[in-house]
Structure formats: structure tokens, C-alpha cells
Fold these 3 entries.
Entry 1:
Amino acid sequence: MKTNIQTEQEYKRDLRPIDVLGLAVGAIIGWGCFVLPGTSFLPEAGPLGAALGLFLGAVIIMLISLSYSYLIGKYPVSGGEYIFVKEAFGKRAAYVCGWFIILAYWSLIPMNATALAMIGRYIFPGVVQVGYLYDVAGFQVYLGEIVLAYLFIIGIAVLNIRGIKSAGWLQTVVSLTLVGAIFFATIGVLLTGADVSNLQPGFAEGKGSVACIFSVVAYAPYCFIGFDCIPQASEEYGFSHKKSRFIMLGAIMLAALLYISVCTITAAVEPWQALLDKNPDWATGQVIEEALGKPGILFIALAMFCAVVSGINAFMISTSRLMHAMAREQVLPEGFSRLDEKRKTPVNAIIFIAGISLIAPWFGRQVLSWIVDMTAVGGGMAFCFTTIAAARLAYKEKNYKQCAVGVLGFLAASIFLVLTVVPGMPGFLCRESMILLVVWIFLGILFYQVTQRR
């Protein structure tokens, strides 16, 4: 099928397969992997319910990813979902999809940056928690924590401006360290402090097993968003795009294993219900310290540090490439389409993303969490648009097998949206997140009208 996409080489092809795998894994595994077991997964589903929910969520995401890998092969340019939807449904539908993804990607940059301060609160209390400023929605904001977030946002932005080779190298090192740290912490807990009997009962009390499982499945767009960073950088692959399918599936499987591992060890050291009854500030950290002492805490702290740094880097890469592609298609300001002449990086987009990311920490993590909760909607929208786009394009090519895969992926992605936007569903957004979502939609409509008039 012929396309009017710009296919001339603009970016440098410096990304290796290991870099792209690190990009996806580092984007998927974030702060939530270490906090959600104690705050959400175990209370809402129990150990077995959480494991099954995470596994089922990963399977659904893998089904959706097959449409992504098909479209990467057809359109190996930066922009990912925006380009895919534009080719299938036109520029207006692509803009809607891209607008939601920008929110989903960008919000995770300051959220990860402020998570560095949370690591300090848990591991080294009082070290960066200095210079108290004010409270926002019950969260105390400290100048020291804002400075820490600034250092990493600016540092990673500078690294991204220098070139994708530097950013890819950082992503690979940090992601491999992340996986290794979780692996050693898991093995250590299982060998020294775990007891299978502590995992009973398998499901949360007062709820059916199916309800428990789907309460965790509802988190899948949030937990696994990041595999879709792979097509955003597809114009910078230094290898065949055919490998993207295996990299994508491998990243999702590995991430699911890491989520399940952390959740399981959180419940295995002492009876998990008794643990939650203590209302610990950080359940995972508490049980690791019980089993392995301070060395175990340092291992998991290293994993958390790597998770948030890789998240900042991955989403800065992906957001800047998406904004560059949308500007190249004239639905965002033209300045974002500029690449640095020497380094071939979207410098204006990176500077803009870093700039607005520096504003966010002043609002505190509670406000940021309301924004990040919307990523489930943004991810669900992107998944729906991409899978149905793949189905339509495959149908035009008479590739009925891929068309069926796309339709199934669309139905699966629709479940995620239902779980987050329908009242009474397990993942229904809180009031503050719904208000912010409406505001974001309004801004998108307004911005589209202004750019199209120009």
C-alpha cells in the first residue's frame, strides 16, 4: 500500500535491539511495581487474584501489541499510533489519538521524577525532605525534593539532546540493572523468608474470584503502558523492523514476571492479611527488610531508582518523537518538527517537555497522581485506535488473519476503557481525575481549532 508519509531518513539509526528492549521494559516498570502490591493488588485481589490479573492483563496487552508490530513493519517512522491512525482514518482521528497519548506519556515524566524523593523518604528519611513549602491535597511539598526532581529531569533532557545513542545506552544499563536487582531480591526473599502458607487465602475476602482478578486487569493500561514506546523510536532502529514483534512480546512477558514477582514476595514473608492490617507505609519494603535486612532494602532501592530513571528517559524519548511527528504532520506547532542538525534529535520538543515537567513537581504527588490515573484512559484510547486501524488496513490488503487479530485487540482494548470510564467498574476514575480529563479534552479541541486555522 502506498503512503504519503515522509520516509526520508532524518534520525540517526543508532538503536540496538537491546536498547529497544530496555526502552520498553524501563517504560513499563515504574514506581507502581514496588508500591501497588501493598496499596492495591493485595487489598483488592489477594496474592493469587493479583497474579492471575497481572497475567491476564499481560496476555491482553500482548494481543494488542500484535497490531503494533504489524503497523511498525508498514510504517517504520517516528510517531507510532498517530501515524497508524492517520493512515487508516485521517488526520482528525489521529490528532485525537495523539492528544491522549501525549498526556499519558508526558505525565509519567514528572511522576517518575518526584518518585525519586519518595525513595528518599522511605530509604533515607529526612535527607532530601528539607525546606518545607506547603501542602497540596494533603501532600507536603519540600524544596529539597523539587530540586532533586529538577536535577534528573534536566540531566536526562540534556542527555536526550546529545543524541539517541547516549539515551539508548543509559536506558540499556539502567533497565538491565533494574531487572537484575528485582531478580536477586526475589531469589533472596524466597530462599530466606518466604512461606507458601502466608499466601492463603488466595483471593481478597468479601469478593468473588472473578471480581478480584478483573480489579487487577483494570490496571493493565497503567501497568503495561510503555511497550508502545517501541514504535515511537522506530525511525532510529539500527536493525530490521521485523524484530520489533519479538522485542515487544518479550518486554511485556518480562514486565509481567517482574510485577508478579514483587507482588508475590510482598505476600509471602508473613500472612499477607496480617501485614496489611498493620497499614504499613511501604509493604514491599517492610517484608524485604524482614527477610534480608538492610542489604535487601538497598537492592530494592536500587531497583526503584533504576525504574524511575528509565521511566523518565523512556517517556522523554517517546513524547518528543510523537510531538515531532505530529508537528511534521502540521497538527502541532512547526517548531517541534525541528531536528538538531548535528545530533538529529528533536531538540525543541525535548526542551518543551522538560520545561513543563519542571512545573509539575510544585503541585505535589497527589495532584500528579490524579493526572497519571488518566493515563489508563489515554492508553486505552491509543490501544483502541491502533488495533482498529490495523484491522482496517489489513482488511484493505485482504490480510484477513491480521484483520481478525486487530478486531480482537480492539475488543480487548475496549474492556480497558469500560473499566475506567463506566461508574461502578473496578478502575473507574476518581472525581478529580474525571474533571482533569474533561479539561484535557476541552484543551485538545481548542488547540486543534487554533492550529487548523493557522
Note: The longest strand covers residues 132-136.
Entry 2:
Amino acid sequence: MIACDMLDSGIARITLDRADAANALTLPLVAQLRGTIAELQDDPDVRLLILTARGGVFCAGLDLKEIVGDGEEAPDNFANIDLQERFAALMCEISESRFPVIAALNGPAVGAGMGMALAADIRIAATTARFLIGAVKIGLSAGECGISYHLPRIVGAGRAFEMMLTGRAVDAEEAHRTGLVTTLCEPDMLQDEALTLARQITANSPYAVKHTKQVMRSNLEAPSLRAAIALENHVQCLALGTADFREGCEAFAQKRPPDFRGH
């Protein structure tokens, strides 16, 4: 139901491969995604992850058959919270991964699919992409799968309220205009654009990339400017002692590309 491959040295790609069901998430698919991300986390050679999908839809969200079933007997609350926790944990694992995650959105991202996209560090989209928080239209809260946390931090609280309370679809152009996605391209160029961006990131030193993500994620929740600066100072002082920093300075002075070795 998913494919995982290495595109370049250090660049992994996970592809949702359930196009016949609009890449809707089932519990087995979520378990497979979480297991694959955990394996990538344990692989020191992986420095960046691209998350994408096959077909015309990125992810239609939760496969409602997981909840509704045959309609004869509704799941009890214990089953419901277990389902919700498993889906929500996936968002944490994407967001908290040690490497940057690029969501390459080939089509609509709905509900939990939008949650996955928002949990990524960077989103690029084909012109066919759309964003939809459909839960509010079927009697559920739009606050699910980390959406109420990530969305206002990306587009601002006022716009997030409007999107979540109406449940309206946001097309690719609006998503680009509001910063929900950073790059917009034609569908046949999406994977090339994702790989180009990934290579720009992994051309930098492993320490710099890893700790830039960690500092950014931590300082989104910093209680004060001084607390944010204290973390920056700590990370930067360690960086000043690395061989990659010295190599970066020498390469700059010699007007050549740096040869970072990760130490």
C-alpha cells in the first residue's frame, strides 16, 4: 500500500500507493507508514524524506469504512479513541522526525491527508492539488490530526478559523498565495521539483540541516525571545566546532562548493 525508495544519496521517498481508493488511510496503511518512517529514522544515511502519492489524489483522509463498517454496529468509544490515537501519532512522527520532510502534493489532501501535509516541514503542490477539512461537514470537529495546531501556525489564526469552520476547499493557487504551499507546478513536474528542492537542502551540512529543523520546531513554542536565542546559541556553539564549519568557510573563501562530511 506504500512504496519506499531512495532517490539520491540521503533522500528517501514514501509514496502512498492506494490510488484505486484515493489513497484513503486505513489502520494497516497507517501502521505501514509509521513503521517505514521509524525504519528511516534508524537509518543514519537518510537525511530527508519526500512524502507523496500515486494517482490523482494525495490522500482522501480516513477511509470511513474503518468507522462505519457495515453500519450494523457502531464502534464503542474505546475503539474510537484507539483509532484516533493511531492516526494522530502519525502526524507527530512526521513532524518530529530528525530529518526534514517535504510533502509533494499531487492532488487533493483531505482530512487526515491534509493533516499529513501540514505535519511536513515544506509543502509543494501540483496545480491539481486542493486542501479540504471535511470533518466539519459530516458532524465531526475540524480539529483532528494536528490540523488545529499546524494550520494557524502556517496561514494565521483568522484564515485557519475560516477554513476549518466552513470546511470549504482551498485550491492550489490560494494555497500558494497564502503560504500553505511554497511551490506550485504542473503535475508532470512535481517529482522533479521535489527532488530539486531536496537536493538544495541536502547540499548543506548534515548538522546544519538537522539542527535547523530542530531549532525551528522548538522555537515555534519558545516562551520568549530570550529562550529562543538561548537554544540558538547552544546549537551554534556546537556547530562552530565541527569540521564541516571549517570546510564551509574554506570553500566560501576559495569560491568552490563545500564537501561536507557530516562531522
Note: Residues 186 and 246 are 40 Å apart (CA to CA).
Entry 3:
Amino acid sequence: MNLSRRALLSASALLVARPRLAFSDATHAAVKAPTAAEPLVLCWNENPYGPSPLARAALNGTVSHACRYPEQEIELLQNALVAKEGLSADHIVTGSGSGELLSALGTLVGRERGEIVAAEPTYLELPGYALRVGATVKYVPVDALLSHDLSAMRAAVSDKTRAVYLCNPNNPTGTAIGAAAIRSFVESLPDNVTTIVDEAYMEFADDPAVKSVTDLIGSGKRVVVLRTFSKIHGMAGVRCGYAMGQPDMIASMTDIRMASPSIFAMRAALASLGDHAFLTDTRRRVIASRQRITGELDRLGMPYAKAQGNFVFFDTGMPIGAFQERMLARHIRVGRRFPPFDNWCRITVGTEPQVDTFLSALRSIAAESRGRERKIG
């Protein structure tokens, strides 16, 4: 990202000067042993490392300015996103989390009584909201690798289809589609169908084929790409996200969004965009811990989907309700049921100590299951 000197100076003036926090400070609380009163929460795909030190300083330094409207912040964040994405300002809209912008897209489709094609299972913010406002949703099961079945999704597109939703990497499966495959898919769609690509977890992907498809925005096809500050930036509770698309689509989304980010969210987002060292280290740690989890699943013989987000989707070998109970007995909260994968669990990648705790519990539960099987046999 290349910000202008003026933008950098203006952004710096908004922050309170203070020493940088060490990475270990951001994770100190993670070493506490979980208890029944304070279980280890690994069920929401949150980034356990939290906001970057610069974002924390921005949040703390904004309290005295909470009485002000964020007019300057709107311009600064917009300029930063323009520089980062290489798009003009009329191609970008911010929102109180990307979820709000997904709801706006659902409204646009729903008020036309249109149809959305989406994978099953996938993130339900967009299809769920669209259903409530009058749209219909056609779900297409994921393929044998638990990835989007693009051929089947293309076949599902009808005259009523107004949008196709691709969560990439997909939540809850964690699988991702290569950029080349998405480009071919978009090219095959009718001109009146909008492809909505939710890239909330893109920064955690380590497959070289998996990349952002923001370049499609200028292709002449109707494409919207969404990003969030909830995941790699660790600000799920702060609520800030943005969408990119053709100016007419962005204008429509801007008109119907319910709220823009707060002054806290915009200052923190602007600061986090510039904290490259923290973001790089967070990505490295999450990927390393994700590999530890999948390595243990291999050792235990538990199938799992190819993980490209900050979570792993795996087959527990038992109904998910039973697995949740056994984990909760060890003071760990894990992901809910995602039909039709009734035995599968989505586990968030925590800090290194949190992963230690989870893997210890997983080994214990696996050993108990093997013991029961031997008794039955």
C-alpha cells in the first residue's frame, strides 16, 4: 500500500503517541488455563492475537474524540483503501463490518424478488438476510473436497438468478477456489448476474493459486468483492469492512446501508493497514498453528478439509453435539453443527498455548473413543 505523505501525516496526527506493544503483550491473556467460568472460546473464527499495537493505540487515543463526527476519518480511510486496492473512490464503500454490506447486497436482490445461488454449507449472512427480504436462495452442495462445486453452481443459474455468492475461503469448510477458476466462472455467467466474492479470510490462504479477484471489478462483468477488518486485523468487535465493485453497484449499496463505521473503527482500521509487521507475524503464527492442528488430525486419522482460513473443519467421528459436550467438559467451546455435516467440527486456530490445550483435549477424546470401540468389539 502506498499512502501519500499528506495522508500519512494526517493519520499520524490522529493517533496518540505511545510505545508499541510487544507481540507477547497482545497474547499474554491466552496462557491462562480455561475454566468452567472462563472456557477457551474456539468457535467464532476470531483472531486470538487481537488488534495490532498501532490499532490499539488508535482506539485508546480516540476516547476523547468520541464526541466528534468522523468526517476526516472517512476521507483518510477511503484514501488508504484506494491506495491499497488500486481502485478509485467510487468503487469502494465501507460499512460496520462486511456483514452489513452483505446484508445490503441481500436487500438489493431481495427487493427484486431475485434468486441467489450459494454453496452448502457456507456463511449465511447474505443468503439468510436475502431470504428475509424477499429473495429465494438455491443452495448447491459442496463437492467431494468440500469446496464450491462451480460446475454445479453454474448449472443452477436460472433466468431468475440475480447473484451468485462465493465465500472464498469458504466458511465453515475452510476450502478455497483458485483465482483462475473464479475468473472462468464469472466469464461464463450472464451479464445481469452479479458474482459476490467474500474474501474475509483471504489473508490466511497459503495456496499459491488462491488470490484476490479484485481485478475482475474492471472486467465489464458484475462483480463485488468484500473484505473485513474482523479477521487478520483482529477487530471483530470494532466492526469495519468494505466492498469493492462497479460504481453503480457501490452507489446502490451506499444508499441502503444502515450505518458507516464509527470514528473508533475508522481510526483503528487506518492504523492497522499500516502495521505490516504485525499482520505478517499474525499470518505466520496462524498458518503454523493451523498446520499443527492438521498434522495431529493426520496422526489421529481424522479426515479434514483443506484449510485456508483461520480455522479447520474436521470429522470428529461422532455427532457434533457429543463432541461439543466432551470439549466443554474440558472447558473448550468449539463450532456448532453445519448441516449436512453432522459429525464435523469447525475449530478456530488459537494462540500457540490455546492450540496446545485444544490438541491435548482432542487426543484425550480420541483415546476415550478408541477405548469404547475396543469394549464394544
Note: The domain at 278-376 is CATH 3.90.1150.10 (Aspartate Aminotransferase, domain 1).
